[in-house]
Amino acid sequence: MRKSILVFFLILGASLSHAQDKNKTVTFEVKGNCGMCKSRIEKTAIKIAGVKFALWNVDTKEFKAIIDERKCSIDMVKKKIAGIGHDIKGYIAPLDVYNNLPACCQYRNPESIHMNHEKH
Amino acid sequence: MEYRDGKENIALPDANVYWFSSAVGTTTDSSGNFTIPYRADLKKLIISSVGYRSDTILVNRPDLGNIILYPTVVLDEVIVEKQVAPLQKSLFKVQNVVSVDSREMLKAACCNLSESFETNPAVDVNISDAVLGAKQIQMLGLNSPYLLFTQENMPAIRGASQIFGLSFIPGSWIEGIQITKGAGGVLNGFESISGHINSELVKPIIDKRFFLNLYANNFERYEFNSRLNHNLTDNIGTGLYIHANLRNGNIENNGDSFLDTPLAKQINFMNRWQYLNPENGWVSYATIQYLNDSKEIGQLDFNIDTDKLTNNNWGSEVKTSRLDLSSKLGYVFPESPYQSFGFQTAYSNHSQDAFYGLNIYNINHSSFYSNFIFNSIIGSTQHKFKTGISLTHDSFDETVNSSNYYRDDNSIGAFFEYTYDNLEGLSFVAGLRADTHNNLGDFFTPRFHLRYSLWDKASLRASFGRGKRGANIFAENQQLFASSRQIIINPNGGNYYGLKPEKAWNYGISFMQKLYILNRVLDFSIDFYRTDFVDQVVVDWENPREISFYNLEGDSYSNSLQIDVNYEMLQDFHIRATYKHFDVVTDYNSGVLEKPLQPLSRFFVNLNYETLQRGGQQWRFDFTSNWLGKQRLPNTESNPVEFQLPPYSPSYMLINAQVTKVFSNKFEFYVGGENINNFTQNMPILSGNNPFGPYFDSTILYAPVLKGTYYVGFRYKI
């Protein structure tokens, strides 16, 4: 009996650790340059159902989000952000979308960082 | 191999030496020497080292002697900074807020909070009366009782401290001020009607270690301000702040036998503790403040020991002691940065003993306040909410001549505030409170603010809200005691001296545009606010023998229009210009009248020029001019001719200026003047030579009593 209870709790613990997290913090690098990129990235992310909080750091390029894994996944968030022109490891933005970004946001061009980023 | 440093040559180890267009090479040793096998076919030797200009040497002899390399020119990093203006209007905040930082306080004498608004067009500074000389502030054409003052988001300067409270917060303790026009939020209670002014005090952990300020003016006012901060650990800091002021010179220049400005003494201590730990998310403050203030006013010959409460000479003394205790505790959930809670508690005791001529007015006001706030989101940070519970308790014990008034106010309330941001330029804050109050009853307080971006750098804002309060008629109109007016209250069964509470709706709309003109920012804003009183305690000065208080029957409203332009005309030369128009009308028993002593229009200009900082040195110049349009004066027709005033005051101009010389980031010296153009009211006191007669009145003051006030001071901080 005691053994079966222990097993039950072990199974419960294992299933809990695999359960989808309501408040999962995810961080990954997102390519971008400036404040305009920041608002584009954060807006896109926060509008995904299940994303509770989104923050992109202009200096470190680190993107942090808190997501409800029952409603969305890290994969979905990465896809969406890449879909609006910002490269992520393993998710490359489509060229036509990238080319439509303002010149100062075209981070693949090393010169772009020195451009005038209005709205700063 | 060497390099040149100033006048001497220094050996250069580890420099690369190789034959031109080959991979054959060597490096110099620790004393800068090298040897390399000779290659006749290559002839050219390249010398290079990081940080030095490479050199090419034609090798035509075995010993090349000393080779000197010159450093590459290293350009220092250039940081381009643009200081934000000390007065900020945000395009993005939902509420119509003007933020003022501590630099704004350096633009004028700013001895205390009441004077911090002299350079700020959002707030009007007036003087209460000719005897007390207390500076009062107004917003939207309404007096300070209709404003909510908070100190670090806890209600302050209310009840007993309504008239003098602004002078109990020294300017040097203030870190910043946020001025919200119109109905504020629901977080801080239900009392605000025309605006909300929050002042943030300096924080021990980030404040300077030591600050000293001394001030003196030509009317014998002296001020001492000092702050001392110490961080016990990285997370715990404490600060001790001391303010003292003194005026012991008898100033009487206008021949009405009364002192033009009170003799005053104040000592004011504050001790703050701050705990801040970003790792675990906790932040906490504990503050204790004690002050003792006394003012002596009256006729030049008044001697308090022999003349108090007699009619030998008219005199007055106001003694105040006040204790404030407050604490705040905040926690931000480390895993969810959008979720936090805060708990605030404050206790204060304000005890004032005063006599004015033959009138006695004492008030003891104890107050307890606590507020619990929980912040979180619904789904995502596009939908934020704040909710919580407030508890307040106030007890008043007043003596007005031979009458005593006791009152306890108790309330408990809950609030909920929802903020929506669609991230495309539309955001709004909708708040609702429900309070149950022993004297005000059970009631809801709605507040709503909306912001919409019309186009690039343009914001449209709209707000509405309701406020409710009980009027402390004596504390708010203390100047009435410095007159021969008889006090009349027409009770109608309310809980506040027999009067019903005050209730008003406030509506506002504002438009703001930021433009770049000649590559410099221009802010343009226009706003219009209307306050509609559903119920009001009318303060009626229209019979010069009386002051009467009664509940409004009919209409009472205030319309205010403000147009602002801020522009940097030349590099570091800023201009602020404001035009304001007021239409404040109340149904008095004697008819529909404009509010007395309220300028119909005001024009404000502030010019500020700062030289570039060189080696910490800087000059700062400030110039402020206020033009006040005509003000309706209370009716004095029934007075003898010599004590009659015209129906309107003249319009006039006030000019203040200040020059600051910054010697280093530690020391600055300032000199300035207020009312430089010497405009004073002629006859600020009616019947001043017969203060115990029926016509004595010091309450009708529309202009300064004092001529030009010139001051000097210095600030030292490390």
In short:
The complex is a heterodimer of chains A (120) and B (718). By secondary structure, chain A is an alpha+beta fold. Chain A has helices spanning 2-18, 35-46, 74-83, 95-99, and strands spanning 24-29, 51-56, 62-67.
Task: Summarize the topology.
The complex is a heterodimer of chains A (120) and B (718).
Chain A: H1 2-18, E1 24-29, H2 35-46, E2 51-56, E3 62-67, H3 74-83, H4 95-99
Antiparallel strand pairs in A: 1-3, 2-3
Chain B: E1 2-5, E2 8-11, E3 16-19, E4 25-27, E5 44-48, E6 55-58, E7 68-69, E8 87-89, E9 97-101, E10 124-127, E11 135-139, E12 142-143, E13 147-151, E14 154-156, E15 174-181, E16 195-201, E17 210-217, E18 221-231, E19 236-247, E20 263-277, E21 282-298, H1 304-307, E22 315-332, E23 340-356, E24 359-378, E25 380-400, E26 403-421, E27 426-437, E28 441-453, E29 458-469, H2 473-476, E30 486-489, E31 502-517, E32 520-535, E33 537-540, E34 546-551, E35 556-570, E36 573-588, E37 591-594, E38 601-610, E39 618-628, E40 652-662, E41 667-674, E42 709-717
Parallel strand pairs in B: 1-7, 13-16, 30-34
Antiparallel strand pairs in B: 1-2, 3-4, 3-5, 5-6, 8-9, 9-15, 10-11, 11-12, 13-14, 15-16, 17-18, 17-42, 18-19, 19-20, 20-21, 21-22, 22-23, 23-24, 24-25, 25-26, 26-27, 27-28, 28-29, 29-31, 31-32, 32-35, 33-34, 35-36, 36-37, 36-38, 38-39, 39-40, 40-41, 41-42
